[in-house]
Q: What sequence folds into this?
């Protein structure tokens, strides 16, 4: 995560979406990272994992907003 703005920013909860080739969601989860705030130009790394990925998975996305609020 990189803060490209000129001001401090909070890092929100992150959302992972796993979808098939037709963009049908197969699995999703959310997580937070240890770093909660970034100053201008600062960056933070993150990692997340899951037990099983569906065999038909073709895409993985990480979002900064809750997907259910983006409809």
A:
């Amino acid at each position: 995560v990189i803060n490209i703005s000129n001001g401090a920013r909070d890092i929100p909860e992150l959302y992972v979406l796993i979808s098939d080739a037709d963009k049908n969601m197969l699995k999703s989860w959310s997580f937070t990272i240890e770093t909660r705030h970034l100053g201008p130009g600062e960056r933070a790394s993150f990692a997340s994992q899951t037990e099983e990925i569906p065999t038909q998975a073709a895409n993985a996305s990480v979002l900064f907003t809750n997907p259910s609020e983006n409809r």
In short: The radius of gyration is 14 Å. The first strand starts at residue 9 and ends at 10. The beta strands are 9-10, 14-19, 25-31, 37-38, 59-63.
